[in-house]
Here is the input.
Amino acid sequence: MKLTTAGESHGKMLLGIIEGLPSNLVIDIEEIDRYLSLRQGGYGRGGRQKIERDRVEILSGVRDRKTLASPLAFAVKNRDYENWAACMAPEGADTSLRRLTKVRPGHADLTGIIKYDQTDARNILERASARETAARVVGGTIARQYLRALGVEVSGYVRCVCGVEDKAFHAFEELEGAKTQPLFMLDDKKQTEAMAKIDKLKELGDTAGGIVEIRIKGLKSGFGSCMSYSEKLDARLCAALMSVQAIKGVEVGMGFGVGRCAGSAVHDEIFSEGGRYRRRTNNAGGIEGGMSNGEEIVLRAAMKPIPTLMRGLKTVDYATGEPCTAASERSDVAAICACEIILESVAAFALAEAVSERLGGDNIKEVKGRYDLLP
Here is the structure.
């Protein structure tokens, strides 16, 4: 299974092609649109989300809501394109309009200009923008539907916003309730505190990051490999999370905590219960030796604060070499809720890739039959 995306932040649309889906998988378009909408919401978002109302259009690979096993192509149109066509149109544009040379610290602007031999950061930031993740939410939601057909579910919540952290344990069944909350947090007191912090940062022209926890339930043991480093499941899932814009750190299970504890406090003891092997703790986060062990997979990712600050940071104008204040594109104060949805989506797709590699199958009945036979 493979997802390829294309499109710029203010271009005509975002596009995606998924290869390797089995036939007869039911595609719930309403669910895709729901996750696209969730990606646009959350406390602290900016003006762009009032313009866009993302909806997916399936272009190929699906008939009567069922996959055909041919490549599935989709589009998410950018409604804001009409306001940018004069400077973005591929057929011909005035590239002097909305030119950006006051490169922003923390963004791809300066390094991208140098690498790709450009003089306008617009040619870099349009693709580096997190707007691209709308396409990955579509792909991830389709992967979610593939996994659900096997009894595997993916969910998550916001654990921390700019230092305001919920350290409590929440059962998997509680996690979906986070999506009805303004900051996707499950502790009301912490959420209120975090919202107040976002309000203060907005007054200061500053931004916030946070930590998201992603959980996967229902996956059987043995997905991934201890025989080849490139097939380790934790490596693949962590790479997927790190591929999301603004992610600077990823943990599995106890994560960095394992380096602070003795082995007796880290390793999950194994028991036989009713003829099945079980662990009563899950410090490994559901992965041992690069393979799923049948417990919940637990992932956490740290999102840095958004690099576009409305008050601007000190930088250099690439066109003149003179010191200046960084450009302030329309931006969010906090996009941690969007990040949570995106991280769920990329984790789902990376897992679906690993599952489909092991199971194969040309149609979903065949895939499910093979999965059911696993211990």
Remarks:
- Residues 336-359 form the longest helix (24 residues).
- The radius of gyration is 22 Å.
- The longest strand covers residues 153-161.
